[in-house]
Structure formats: C-alpha cells, structure tokens
Amino acid sequence: AEQQLTRAELAARTGISKPTVSESARRLSAAGLIRDTGARTSGRGRVGSYYGLAEDVGTALVVSIAPEGVVAERLDSHGAVLATTRQPLARPARPRQVEGALRTAAGQVLAAAPGHGPVRLGVVSAADPVDRRTGRLVHLPDAPFLVGELSPADVLGSSVAGPVLVDNDVNWAARAERAAAPAGELADFAYLHLGEGMGCAVVSDEEVRRGFAGIAGEVAHLVTVGPRGRAMLLTEVFQELGLRQPGTTAIDVPALLAAFDSRDAAAVPVRAAVGTALSGVLAALVAVCDPEMVVLGGQWGGHPAVIDTVRARFRQSPRHVPIRPAAVTGEPALSGARRRALGDLRTAIVALARAA
Predict the structure, then answer these.
(1) Rounded-to-integer distance, Cα 17 and Cα 20, Å
(2) Is the pTM of this model over 0.70?
C-alpha cells in the first residue's frame, strides 16, 4: 500500500466523492491522524497535495520470549520495524529474570524510536503454554524452558497503552505458515514444532484451535512407541536415546542432528526410534484432528533426513497424510506475531479515524 496519496487519488480508489474526501481529510488532519507530507503532484493541471498517516499516529510492540532470549520490536502502521533489541536469558529461565528482560527490551525499543506516538497494543509470542483466559504463561511438568508462571501483559502494561495479546510460539508459527501459503491452501493442517522443546498447533478452517484453556497441542506428553517397542511419553523417548541436554528436559539439538547426519551404523537405530516415536504422535493427530497435511518446523523438524525418516514410518500407519517442511524458517513465531500486530494496529487507527 502507498504511504501517501492525494485527495483525488483517494476519491478514485474508494469511489467516494471528492468533496467528501476533502472534508474527511480536513477532519483527520485536524485530529492529528494524517498530515500533508509536503510532496506535490507534477505535470499539467491543478497541483495536488500528498497526504499520509501522521508519524505519531501510534505503533505496536511485538515481543518473542524464547530459549534464545527476548526479542522486542516496535512496528509502525506501514509494517516497518522502527527499532529492535535482544536480551539473553539463562536456561532454565526463571520468571523474575524474564520479567527483567521484558522490561529492558521494551524500554530500549521505545527509547530508540521516539516521536512515533503511543504504543497502542502489544503482541507476545512465548515458548511456553499460554492460558487463553488470563494470558499467563503456564508451567507444565518437565517443561524445558520457563520454570514458573509469568504474565507478560502485566509486565508490559506500563509500556503499552492498549491490549497485550499473548499466545504460544507454535501457534504464531502456524499462522505465519498459513499466511505464506497460496490462497485457499493450508486451511486444515497440523504444525509440529521440533526444537529444544516440542509442540503442535492444529489449524482447522483456517483458525488455530487453542482448546478450552489455550494449551492444546502440548504433544510432549503423548504416549507413543519408544525404543524396543515400549510405550512411553514422547519426551521420555529422547531421554532413553541420550538426546537431552544435561540437567534438563530440553532436546540436545546438535546431538540429534549429528545422529541424522551420521553414516555410522550406530546412528541407524537412533534415527529409527525417533521416526517411530514421531509417527505415533502424528497418527494420534490424524485420528483426532483429521488434518489435510502435517508441516514439520523448528530447529530440526525441517531437516531432510528427519522428514524422510518420519515419512517412511508414517506411511505404515493405517491413516496417513502428506508431510512437508515448513516454508517459513526465519523466526516464524515472531513473523506470525508481527503480522497480527500490524493488522491490529491498522484496525485501531481506523477506529480512531471513525471517531474523529
């Protein structure tokens, strides 16, 4: 979308009469929502003035809370990232440490981009289950990242003038994946995130299904087939295989990838065990959710050898669907949260314009 238009161009594009557009432009300018950019049309005929949104019309705060640290961005209504910052986190993270990182990151991006008006809303992606009723991060047994509960909305309340929306990072990644797909595709799919932690988002009729409490998709505790054919929780499979980081339930991603890249015969049963365990999880997802396909994302989910192994095992299930790697690979959760923040910010600005 253009960042500036003349009143004549606005009238032509909206079908609204020129006098009505001129009066609307006058009121919005008086309300401080749009401004004369100073640019003028050239060529024959009457010179026209270009109008654009006022620079201080407002911004959005986008935050990611992940094992890699806290990322904060300040976004304007055109989708431009005005400022960004990162704060590291220890592992496992504790609520007080995350609170401090959130406040510091938010303060930095606000200070780095002055003169852009209030932060009208916030959108947070968190690598932890989120209670949809309260927006609090929920600590589940054996969670590999945050130990304890935390309310990002409360922490960011002093920095944001409006609402703060919080959701799980896998849900945001699934939304980014769906938005990147061609129109009409990926209306019903399951997004399985495979990284230091594991999670799933179920998209049905183009909407992420969060469940009653908002913690649907926590697949780490699904019972599946473990080594030597024993039934066990998915997270315990990686403990049995020696693929956890010392002193935590987080998966040792470098060790796992090394097993899938290795040509050593000793790595063959490891790959087979991981493929069988994940195939069992996918069989449960297909039986309950009936997705059109499964998308594998995360630090190791899109690895070609992982994809091939899981496909081979999953094809043996009575019901199976296509599997493909995620298309959005560069910070997909942050991308999904950023997209939602931009849409909500524009909606908020339109509401201000209607009230002007």
Answers:
(1) 5
(2) yes
